[in-house]
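ok new one. same drill as before - C-alpha cells go in, u give me an amino acid for every spot. 383 of them this time. try not to just spam alanines like last time pls lmao
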C-alpha cells in the first residue's frame, strides 16, 4: 500500500487504526528491552530502561476492544439469534492466526526439552493455552495472557447479548468489584489475590469497561471539544509512559491512568472522524491492520534476533540502543509479513468454514465507501 487514504467518508476511524499500530510497536520495544537485559544476552537495558513502560500498548488495545465490540454489536444486544454470528466473528478474528503460531511452538518445546520453561510442556497448560482459558501460569505463548482476558470479555458480552441491555449492569458492578478487590490488597486488608480471583479482578479488565463506556457515550450524544480530548489523551499517554516510570508499581493506578488516557483519545478521535475525514498515509493504516500479527509474532522473532545478535557480538560494533531499534523494527516487519502472507488467508479460509452463509466485512475485499454506515466502517477494523 502507498499514498494517502482520501476517502471522503466521515465515519472511517483512521486514527484508531493507526493507534493500533503504534500500540503494537510499543509492546515490541518493551519486550526488546526486557529480553536484551537478560544476562544470557546483553545483560543491560537499552535507552536506560525507558522501554519498561512501553507495555502500556496493551492498555490501549483493551480500551479499544471494549469500544469496538460494543459499537459493532450494540444492535445485537437482546437478539439471541445473533450470538452465533458474534461467536463466529470473534473465533475467526482470534484463534486461527494464534493457533498457526502456537502449535509449532508447542511442538518445539515438546521435542527440544531444553528450550522454554517446564510450564510450557505441561499438558494442562497446553490445553488451556490452545483454548485461551485462564491459568495460574503464563500460556505457552507468553503474550497470549492478554487474549485470555479478551476471550473472557467476549464471553461476558455474549451473556449481555443473550440477556438484553438490562444485563449491562454487570459491567459497572464488575468495575466496582475490581476496584474494591485491588484497594483491599493495596491497603493490606487482604493478601494478594489468589487465582482465579487475580484473573477475574485484574485491573486490566476495567479497561474493557472503559471502552464500553466510550462507545455508549458516543452512541447517545456528541462529545464536546473532541480535538482537546484526543490531544489530551495522547499527551497524557506519552507523559505517563516516558516520565512516570513507577506509575505501574500499583497495577490499579497504572491501569486507571493509561486506560483513562486511551479512553480520552478514543472519544475525541471517533467524534472528530464522525464529522470530518482524516487523510492518513495508507502504509500507516496497513501497519494498524497488521497489529495483531505483529503482537503474536514479535516475541518469537525477538528471541531469535536478540540471540543471534548476542552470538555475533554486535555490541562490539554497534551501540546497544541501535541494536535494540534494529531488532525491534525487524521483528515488527516479520509480523507485518505474517499478516500479509498468512493471517489474511487464514481469516478468509476460516470465514468460509465457520460462517459460509454470512458475508463478514473485510478491509481487503470491502473497502470503505462513502455511503457505508458507521457500523460497517468500524467492522473493517475488528472483523
Amino acid at each position: 500500500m502507498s499514498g494517502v487514504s482520501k476517502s471522503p467518508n466521515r465515519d472511517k476511524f483512521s486514527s484508531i487504526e493507526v493507534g493500533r499500530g503504534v500500540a503494537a510497536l510499543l509492546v515490541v520495544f518493551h519486550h526488546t528491552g526486557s529480553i536484551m537485559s537478560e544476562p544470557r544476552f546483553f545483560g543491560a537495558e537499552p535507552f536506560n530502561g525507558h522501554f519498561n513502560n512501553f507495555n502500556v500498548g496493551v492498555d490501549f488495545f483493551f480500551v479499544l476492544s471494549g469500544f469496538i465490540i460494543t459499537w459493532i454489536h450494540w444492535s445485537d444486544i437482546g437478539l439471541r439469534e445473533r450470538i452465533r454470528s458474534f461467536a463466529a466473528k470473534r473465533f475467526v478474528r482470534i484463534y486461527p492466526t494464534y493457533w498457526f503460531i502456537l502449535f509449532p511452538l508447542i511442538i518445539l518445546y515438546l521435542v527440544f526439552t531444553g528450550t522454554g520453561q517446564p510450564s510450557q510442556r505441561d499438558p494442562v497448560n497446553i490445553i488451556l493455552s490452545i483454548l485461551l482459558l485462564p491459568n495460574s501460569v503464563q500460556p505457552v505463548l507468553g503474550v497470549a495472557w492478554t487474549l485470555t482476558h479478551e476471550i473472557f470479555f467476549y464471553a461476558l458480552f455474549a451473556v449481555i447479548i443473550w440477556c438484553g441491555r438490562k444485563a449491562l449492569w454487570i459491567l459497572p458492578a464488575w468495575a466496582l468489584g475490581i476496584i474494591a478487590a485491588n484497594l483491599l490488597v493495596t491497603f493490606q486488608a487482604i493478601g494478594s489475590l489468589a487465582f482465579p480471583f487475580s484473573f477475574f479482578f485484574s485491573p486490566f479488565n476495567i479497561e474493557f469497561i472503559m471502552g464500553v463506556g466510550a462507545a455508549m457515550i458516543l452512541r447517545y450524544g456528541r462529545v464536546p471539544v473532541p480535538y482537546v480530548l484526543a490531544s489530551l489523551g495522547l499527551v497524557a499517554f506519552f507523559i505517563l509512559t516516558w516520565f512516570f516510570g513507577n506509575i505501574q508499581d500499583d497495577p490499579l493506578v497504572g491501569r486507571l491512568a493509561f486506560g483513562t488516557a486511551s479512553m480520552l483519545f478514543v472519544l475525541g478521535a471517533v467524534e472528530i472522524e464522525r464529522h470530518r475525514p482524516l487523510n492518513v498515509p495508507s502504509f500507516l493504516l496497513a501497519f494498524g491492520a497488521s497489529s495483531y500479527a505483529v503482537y503474536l509474532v514479535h516475541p518469537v522473532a525477538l528471541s531469535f534476533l536478540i540471540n543471534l545478535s548476542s552470538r555475533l557480538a554486535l555490541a562490539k560494533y554497534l551501540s546497544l540502543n541501535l541494536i535494540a531499534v534494529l531488532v525491534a523494527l525487524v521483528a515488527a516487519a516479520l509480523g507485518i509479513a505474517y499478516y500479509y502472507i498468512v493471517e489474511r488467508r487464514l481469516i478468509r479460509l476460516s470465514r468460509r468454514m465457520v460462517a459460509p452463509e454470512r458475508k463478514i466485512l473485510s478491509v481487503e475485499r470491502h473497502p470503505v465507501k462513502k455511503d457505508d454506515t458507521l457500523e460497517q466502517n468500524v467492522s473493517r477494523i475488528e472483523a
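Residues 1-11, 357-383 have pLDDT under 50 and may be disordered. and btw The radius of gyration is 21 Å.
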